[in-house]
Specification:
Elements (H helix, E strand, L loop, with lengths): L7 H7 L14 H9 L6 H12 L4 H17 L3 H17 L3 H18 L2 H18 L2 H20 L3 H21 L3 H18 L2 H17 L3 H18 L2 H17 L3 H13 L6 H17 L3 H18 L2 H17 L3 H14 L6 H109 L3 H21 L5 E2 H18 L4 E7 L9 E2 L5 H15 L3 E10 L2 E8 L3 H8 L2 H25 L4 E8 L5 E11 L3
Parallel strand pairs: 2-4
Antiparallel strand pairs: 1-3, 4-5, 5-7, 6-7
Length: about 650
């Protein structure tokens, strides 16, 4: 496996260029401090924002410091546009530090401030930066929503004749839309938007922008294995960037060209380029640097040089864990497995292969299965050989011990008596401590049980989803299987992010639930439609709910209610707030519980009960902790003739839990 070069660092670097007119001069921090000391307080916000903007690429920490000060001065002197600029600078600086959650936080604050100001271009910039950040996080639905909003605003102004003001933003937005389509695997659309952006930047005479787009187009051809075209585009980009003395842009393109040599198995050239790439390490963000170490490790493993590969793998894993980049942690485990296999330590190779498989969010292909079986077989053989050696040694020790048994018996008896005395003393002391610990343990018990039950929900859900993918593969419907797998990958990313939290926002839960229902629609060939209804008075961003509380009931409604019906199914999930409780209803017009139970086997009954059982226990524990009513009720729906027409589940979650 080779690694895709992330474009986020390039994209976010270019964001402010088309929305501001500040020059990115190379500056000295001490000289900035001297300038600042001569400026009136009412003008300091503007000066600080300019300093922050100029520094974010080379000194993110200092950029954050200046932006925070600018925010304070702008709020003190009621300067909303400077507050907006400070929030944007904070978002950019945190993106440089790979802290994407804080980047999103400050981008959203900037968006709110832009609406308060009423400037459409400031609003477009905030949407643009949000879309770019969500692209990096892998939340592509959110990313596309924000990017298209930015594009809509800019295109409207362009249609109104504001071409000089708008053409540059239009170029950058189309670039990022192309990047989004690249991330989700739609290379045709990605190439379309990249070429559109390239044409605009060429007309503007933006040499750096043209070089960037040539680099992006080269990435598309590299992924399509059209290596000659990719190499041609990279060379054109390098030629322009070299004349511009653009070290940042040059580092990105050289990195991609290096990866291209690895893909083409031109290992000698790859090694030569590796030296060039290392020179530009100071310009790489955390993720890029992690990929550099992983790529170099992969290269050395291909050259059968495990000793050189290991330090790079270790560094890649260390950085990936520090920045919590899940896919790079996964890749690092794979590299460790290959490293240990090359040095014939099959036990560790097998161990890291297992860790890789557990984190990998795709199905295990036959090649990986074969390698895994081979490593396990070698490990088992090695284990048996060691056991035989140990048995021989044990036999020799046994014979020697028989000679010493008489003397040992006396020592053993004396030791036994001493142990009894010590044990009696310890038991008295332990009992005294146990009384003190009892209250604390009971207090923590409820919380630990909550975590345990929540941890069981993820494997239960993932197991059901894998069964669905297996069904498509068994039916030889590879196209739908790939579509389902793509949705599954997005859903698993959400589940992994949410699993660390006791509570998530209702907005997050609804988006996760919507993705899951879409997967089930695909699985059951659209035998049902669905509707998610949220009360207008319900603030989904500030309403919190335990993750995966609703999914088991939705699963039962689809699998056991709507699926047997075969057609014209309808699933409705509604959310409303009553007093201080969140009321959730899951309603279906399926065959009903009585008919469903007649159709199911014992295995299906057990399968169904697990998710509902775990949810019931979670709600019970939540109620004990909050000392409030946390429950769900299942109602059988019937028509005027007392015939079943579906099922309704009502879940009550207090908001003080």
């Amino acid at each position: 496996m080779y690694f895709l070069k992330p474009l986020f660092s390039i994209l976010i670097f270019l964001v402010p260029c088309f929305f501001t007119t500040i020059k990115a001069d190379v500056i000295n921090v001490d000289s900035l401090e001297n300038i600042l000391s001569t400026v009136e307080d009412s003008k300091k916000a503007s000066v600080l924002n300019k300093f922050s903007h100029r520094l974010w690429m080379v000194n993110a920490e200092k950029s954050i410091e200046y932006a925070q000060k600018a925010k304070e001065f702008s709020e003190k002197y009621n300067q909303p546009e400077e507050t907006y600029n400070a929030l944007c600078n904070l978002a950019m600086a945190y993106s440089k530090m790979d802290t994407l959650n804080l980047t999103i936080k400050y981008n959203k604050l900037a968006l709110n401030k832009a609406y308060e100001i009423g400037d459409s271009m400031l609003i477009a910039r905030a949407y643009f930066e949000l879309g770019t950040t969500y692209t990096e996080k892998g939340q592509y639905e959110q990313a596309l929503k924000y990017l298209l909003k930015a594009l809509q605003i800019v295109e409207k102004k362009y249609d109104n004749g504001d071409s000089l003001e708008i053409i540059r933003p239009l170029a950058f937005i189309t670039n990022n839309v192309g990047t989004l389509y690249k991330r989700i695997g739609n290379k045709e659309k990605a190439l379309y938007y990249y070429r559109l952006s390239l044409n605009i930047k060429s007309k503007l005479g933006d040499s750096a922008g043209v070089a960037n787009m040539l680099n992006n187009i080269g990435l598309i051809y590299a992924e399509n294995s059209d290596f000659n075209k990719a190499d041609d585009y990279y060379d054109k980009s390098i030629s322009i960037l070299s004349k511009l003395h653009d070290s940042t842009g040059l580092s990105e393109t050289l990195f991609n060209k290096w990866e291209l040599y690895i893909k083409r198995k031109h290992f000698k050239k790859a090694l030569t380029y590796y030296d060039s790439v290392k020179i530009f390490k100071p310009y790489f963000n955390g993720r890029t640097l992690t990929i550099m170490y992983a790529n170099s490790a992969d290269l050395f493993l291909m050259l059968n040089k495990p000793d050189k590969a290991y330090p790079a793998i270790k560094k890649a894993l260390e950085m990936a864990k520090e920045t919590k980049i899940l896919d790079m942690i996964t890749i690092s485990y794979r590299l460790l497995s290959e490293y240990y296999a090359q040095i014939s330590d099959y036990k560790k190779a097998y161990y890291y292969q297992q860790k890789y498989i557990q984190l990998n969010d795709s199905l295990i292909n036959s090649e990986v299965t074969s390698k895994l079986a081979e490593m396990q077989a070698r490990y088992e053989t090695e284990k048996k050989e060691k056991q035989i050696t140990i048995l021989k040694k044990n036999q020799q020790l046994k014979e020697a011990e028989l000679e010493k048994q008489k003397s040992i018996k006396f020592v053993f008896l004396a030791s036994f008596i001493l142990v009894i005395i010590i044990t009696v003393l310890l038991i008295g002391k332990i009992k005294a401590k146990q009384k003190h610990r009892q209250a604390e343990l009971e207090k923590r018990n409820l919380e630990n049980e909550q975590k345990l039950l929540r941890s069981q929900m993820n494997p239960h859900f993932i197991f059901n989803s894998l069964n669905s993918i297996q069904g498509f593969i068994s039916a030889n419907d590879s196209f739908k299987a790939m579509g389902f797998l793509s949705k599954f990958g997005h859903l698993i990313r959400r589940i992994l992010e949410n699993s660390r939290e006791n509570f998530i926002t209702l907005e997050n839960e609804i988006e996760t639930l919507r993705l899951y229902i879409e997967m089930e629609k695909l699985r059951f060939k659209d035998v049902f439609d669905y509707e998610i209804i949220v009360d207008d008075n319900l603030d989904t961003e500030n309403t919190f709910i335990p993750p995966l509380i609703i999914q088991p009931f939705v699963e039962n409604a689809i699998v056991h209610g709507l699926s047997p019906k075969g057609k014209n199914g309808k699933l409705t999930v509604s959310f409303r707030k009553k007093n201080n409780n969140l009321i959730i209803k899951v309603t279906d017009n399926g065959v009903g519980r009585e008919q469903s139970s007649l159709l199911k086997t014992d295995t299906e009954n057990k399968h169904k009960s697990l998710g509902v059982k775990l949810t019931r226990e979670r709600l019970t524990l939540m109620g004990k902790k909050a000392k409030a009513a946390v429950s769900f009720v299942i109602n059988d729906l019937k028509d005027g003739n007392n015939r079943p027409v579906g099922t309704e589940v009502v879940i009550t979650v207090p908001q003080n839990v």
